[in-house]
Amino acid sequence: MDLKRKLRRLNLWAYLFIIPALTFYSVFTLRPLTQSIILSFYDWDGFNPVKRFVSFANYIEALSDLVLGLALLNNIKWVLISIILSQGTALLLAVLISRCIIGQSFFRSVLFFPNMLSPMIAALIWGRIYDPLIGFVNTFLKSIGYGHLARGWLGSPEWALIAVCIANSWRAYGYYMVLYLAGLQSVDPTLYDAAKVDGANGWQEFWYVTLPSIRSTTTLVLSLALINSLMTFDMVWGMTQGGPFHRSEVLSTLIYKTAFASNRVGYGCALSLMQAILIFTITILFIRIRERSEG
Amino acid sequence: MRRSFKVLSLLLVILIGMSSISSAYGQKVIKFAYEGEWMLEFFKWYTQKNPDIKIEASPITLEDVDTGALQLALVGGTGPDIMQIDAAPGRMGMLALAGLLYPLDEFYAKYGWDKKFFPWTLRSVTYNGKKYGLPSEVEYIGPFYNKNIFKKLGLNIPKTYEEFKNLLSKLKSAGYIPVTQGTRDPTPRGHIYANFIEASAGKIRVERLLYGNGRWDSPEFNLGAKELQELVRSDLVYKECNSLKYSESNNLLWTEKAAMTFMGTWILYEYLKEYSKMDFGYFILPPIGKDVPGRFTGGLGSGYAISAKTKYPEECVRILDALFNTPEGQKMMLTVGKVVPPLPILDFSKVKKDLHPLQIDVIQKLKDPKGIGYNLSVYVPTTVKNVYYENIQGLMGLMISPEECNRNIQKEWERAKAAGLILK
Amino acid sequence: MRLIFIILLIYTLIALIPFSWVVLNSFKNNTEIFSNPFGFPKQFLFNNYTEAWVTGKLMQYMINSFIIAIPTTLGTLMVSSLAGYAFGRINFWGDTLVFSIFLFGLMIPFEAIMIPLYFILKGLGLLESYAGVIIPGIGGPFGIFLMRNFFRQIPLELSDSARIDGCGEFKIFLYIMLPLAKPALSALAIFSFMGSWNSFLFPYIVITNDAKRPLQVGLLNFQQRFYTDYRLLFAAIVLSMIPVIFFYVLFHRQFIQGIASGALKE
């Protein structure tokens, strides 16, 4: 009698609701993942029926792979630039929109628009903006007398990554803006009234009222941004393919090239698993830090 | 809302149903992965003459082979029956070695192809002693220049490399970009690099590299790479070439901001379609090395191969035969596709009047195979190709030295050799 | 207040100008696109659009995109709402663990599973089929996460009283919870549709048969190996945006609300 009640409290019938999702997920995400793990211990070109077992050789090679190190650095650069450009813009715009008396819906939709473009299309558009001769950036620089700064942005070893990151921020900020907007909706308006009574100006309001109120939103959005930055692929691939000569190489482009262009599937799988572990570790760490510092 | 969903799903079911009905008609369906849109006309003509054949055509891109999508499809049995791909070790050879292509020797004998195609073109479709494809078009690559700009500045075709450099300087002083090259994309990197290697090392040494024991980092090769980099350094080859894609670079030509580019004869299609009013031509890059005559690079462009898993090998072969071996097929290749097939042209005198002088030039040069050097890009296996393209981009971006560039390629080349990827 | 508007307007320009540049250029011919990239077209070549539509077989590609995007969206909505409901309102044995396994999926980069996924699809005979693109696109962790958070906020009394009245669990889900979830479902629908419509890499490797390829892959045809027809490409891009915009306009009012209630209450 006791056992039956215990079993009933386990509510195992809930699994009936979960089974569809779990099935799709296991077959199409988990299973390939485990196979990827297995493949990472082999040397394989992707279509040869014979695979060669090499144990940890792929991982050892990865540790001394200079290009991998460069790609990792580029991802970190990307994270930092994205935080300022993408997150900063998203939060700023969200706050501004939420303070609008009229036109909220208009601005919300219009400012979200770049996110509706596919990365391929955005890459195409920004490729033209960065064109060395007739692109918008260089034409603008020349017109304000800074023509000497003009250059081929996507072919520049120093600027290629930054240029692509800017383009990506343009495309991506809308997504985060919308999330911030949603979070701002739940801020208790009486807090603002109290702040006004205390004589706070706009900036103080933002820093001492708004930000703390949306703390959990910020954690979520920043986590997503972190994950996406470490996984970034589409825009880089569409604009520079990691060039020139690896200066804009990121983890995902390197892995893609390794697995497909160089036909080294085993090595590619090893790299992608290392990337997954990196993403997981950094994200969990970030969330823990945020939770701990939550007064 | 619920109603519209029902209608939508019904529509979906109908659409999906329709697409599967068409293949149940009793026709033989042949999937053809083609490269030039002119081929659609050929398919129309062929299926009209042969109504029992249905050709499902889809365009193929370089990415399909380089990213492995094509290989995966062929292995999975869902790939095309006939495909148009580069006839070279790096592409066709790789598929042949993996057993994905149908050996065609019996058909060569049966349809008399072995007597028709120029012998030197057959080398590129023969792997491990067996023929796996048909050489489809021949092209050469070299400096493609704007004749009007040259005339305006009183420039003549350079006969020595010194003259070439002077010419570039004159163009630059007159405000033009002397040479543009779309090296943000991989293939244009190879086009210009191979030309300079040919000019400095010569065909014989390149052959020794590809089929013997030659090295990428030998002095003659380093010389070519060095000269190329020097030109970029002095902006005689557009300094920002690494930020231009292939088509962006070409448009500098068409808008007359640039005077020339290293380009292959496949440009004829675009040129004749949109810019035929402009006056363009080719010359040969003068030799840099001492004992080198100076040649175009190039040779075979693509070839046609048949999947090893095809259900209709004979029908596929017949389609290809109609393309190459009939006056109508050849005429379409020449006049619509603007490509030059690598065999004697039937009824040449009749077709001649419809051809552009450049095409006639290619046809005539073809008869003398000694005249064309190697477009290195298609002769290296995939693993080497990436290192090759990346390093050339580094070379042209002034990021690594020519010796380093060639040394990196050599390292990867040796690795590939050890893995048995270099074909004889 | 005025400052706010000015800043917002500046950003509006930044957001819209690049795309409007594409629209502008879609009416020019190829030479003009490069000789006069920022000016107004000398003539509005509307036939660029008809030509792009016809030679680019845009109708075929768009239909394919719909055939893929709509079932993906519907499937995602169903699967995510079911799972999200269970995670959000039922305490069951293993719920934290299983949910964490799903969350983990958010962090797996696509390249990590791309190749084995291809072979799994091959083994199931799903290559070269719409289903091969649709089905793997359904079990996404993001949707489950969204729906779970949403369902968590509905007061317990609602389901408790329904249970007392003898309502079965599934009926509670179907007739009470689901209708309440419209905002969250709308948000998920938009993200799901957009994601599917804009996706390139996965359909590219699964479907090589041109007749079944979706729009983003089809756009590649305008960038052939040695020739890019820019005017047609731009026209095709503009045309390809129309369904997305339309879908967004349809659902956008519920969109923010859905995210508000779905993603952010911890």
Layout of secondary structure:
The complex is a heterotrimer of chains A (295), B (424) and C (266).
Chain A: H1 2-9, H2 14-39, E1 42-43, E2 52-53, H3 57-63, H4 66-99, H5 104-112, H6 119-129, H7 136-143, H8 160-185, H9 189-197, H10 202-213, H11 215-231, H12 234-239, H13 251-261, H14 265-292
Antiparallel strand pairs in A: 1-2
Helix pairs in contact in A: 4-8, 4-11, 6-8, 8-11, 11-14, 13-14
Chain B: H1 2-21, E1 28-34, H2 39-49, E2 53-59, H3 62-66, H4 69-76, E3 82-86, H5 89-97, H6 105-111, H7 113-116, H8 119-122, E4 126-127, E5 130-131, E6 133-135, E7 138-146, H9 147-153, H10 161-173, E8 177-180, H11 186-211, H12 219-233, H13 246-254, E9 258-264, H14 267-274, E10 280-282, E11 296-300, E12 302-306, H15 313-325, H16 327-336, H17 348-352, H18 357-366, E13 372-374, H19 382-396, H20 402-418
Parallel strand pairs in B: 1-2, 1-3, 8-9, 11-13
Antiparallel strand pairs in B: 3-12, 4-5, 6-12, 7-9, 7-10, 7-11
Helix pairs in contact in B: 11-12, 11-19, 12-20, 15-16, 19-20
Chain C: H1 2-25, H2 30-35, H3 47-55, H4 58-89, H5 95-106, H6 110-123, H7 130-134, H8 141-152, H9 156-164, H10 169-180, H11 182-198, H12 201-206, H13 215-218, E1 223-224, E2 227-228, H14 230-263
Antiparallel strand pairs in C: 1-2
Greatest interface (CB-CB under 8 A), with counts per chain:
A-C, 90 and 83 residues
CATH superfamily of the domain at 76-248 in chain A: MetI-like
| Counted beta strands of chain A | 2
Largest sheet of chain B: 6 strands, mixed
**Radius of gyration of CA atoms of chain B, rounded to a whole number:** 23 Å
From the spread of the alpha carbons, the general shape of chain A counts as flat
The first-to-last residue Cα distance of chain A is 46 Å
Shape of chain B: globular
Strand proportion of chain B = 5-15%
Helix-strand topology string of chain A: HHEEHHHHHHHHHHHH
Oligomer category: heterotrimer
Please tell me the CATH architecture of the domain at 76-248 in chain A by its name: Orthogonal Bundle
Helicity of chain A, as a percent range: over 70%
**Strands side by side in the biggest sheet of chain A:** 1-2
* Structure annotation, total helices of chain A: 14
Mean pLDDT rating of chain A: 87
Low-confidence stretches of chain A: none
Q: Strand percentage of chain A, roughly?
A: under 5%
